[in-house]
Known about the structure:
Keywords: ATP-binding, Nucleotide-binding, Transport. There is one protein chain. This protein has 316 residues and is α/β, with parallel strands linked by helices. The protein has 2 domains: 5-217, Rossmann fold (3-Layer(aba) Sandwich); 227-293, 2-Layer Sandwich (Alpha-Beta Plaits), CATH 3.30.70. It is built from 11 helices and 14 strands. It has helices spanning 44-51, 73-78, 95-105, 112-121, 137-149, 167-182, 194-200, 218-225, 243-246, 272-281, 296-315, and strands at 5-13, 19-28, 33-37, 59-64, 67-68, 80-83, 155-159, 186-191, 203-208, 211-217, 227-234, 251-252, 258-264, 286-293. The strands form 3 sheets. The chain has a 6-stranded mixed sheet with strand order 6-7-8-3-9-10, sandwiched between helices. A 4-stranded antiparallel sheet has the order 2-1-4-5. Helix 3 (95-105) packs parallel to helix 5. The longest helix has 20 residues, at 296-315. The chain is elongated and about 80 Å long. The chain starts with a strand and ends with a helix. The mean pLDDT is 86.
Amino acid sequence: xxxxxxxxxxxxxxxxxxxxxxxxxxxxxxxxxxxxxxxxxxxxxxxxxxxxxxxxxxxxxxxxxxxxxxxxxxxxxxxxxxxxxxxxxxxxxxxxxxxxxxxxxxxxxxxxxxxxxxxxxxxxxxxxxxxxxxxxxxxxxxxxxxxxxxxxxxxxxxxxxxxxxxxxxxxxxxxxxxxxxxxxxxxxxxxxxxxxxxxxxxxxxxxxxxxxxxxxxxxxxxxxxxxxxxxxxxxxxxxxxxxxxxxxxxxxxxxxxxxxxxxxxxxxxxxxxxxxxxxxxxxxxxxxxxxxxxxxxxxxxxxxxxxxxxxxxxxx
Length: 316
């Protein structure tokens, strides 16, 4: 099946010479949820802006639903709903008329039943006659999603959809995204919240300094990069790690009582048995043992750190 979005060698260089995107390649399948992770200035919003026709690329190509965004912009844009990071709604307007107006902007005919269904799905129907300024931040974000869905797009871009909302509202927004996915909408979201990507995304893309470092299925990414951390609690604090343990990559916590050892879950041997023997040989007494799985945040940090190391080596 052809991807609903295909990005080939996409580049964006500004007049001052800054390269926001450096040859990005990305295919997105219909009906999937793709999370784009990256620090500020990584190129996430630039990538979305180009796909949505809000910015021009300086190289490469993008097709949306088979339409080239530079040659068939109108047809491509009809397929896309965009919820930008910044609030961009008319706060003095009422909710329902505002959503209907967005539908008309895309040349869609009147369909009150469809608009009502969107508002109900987003728990906005009882707020339909409220002025937008009267709503909470989370509800305003829902209105923006309703506006983006008003013209029945097949693709929804969410740029930092839960930025600035509390944990409870964030989880409510995740529920909204789950329902949208069930309806067949393709969702591309950028986020700073690693747990959001872990909870929602079928695939995760990591972007840094204009380069797409990888795109991988979330579960596969966790398995292939996943490591576990063994934490050894000592009965008494120590001033330094014994040399034999230091050679094994063991680190010491600030409290002086916790030893940390990272190991690959997929490796043939974890080295834990030998490590524990070395702990006893060093005369240390363990009071507790525990392990924790590495998170997507650990993987993300490692990837970005590796990119920085490679850049330093290239510059040397």
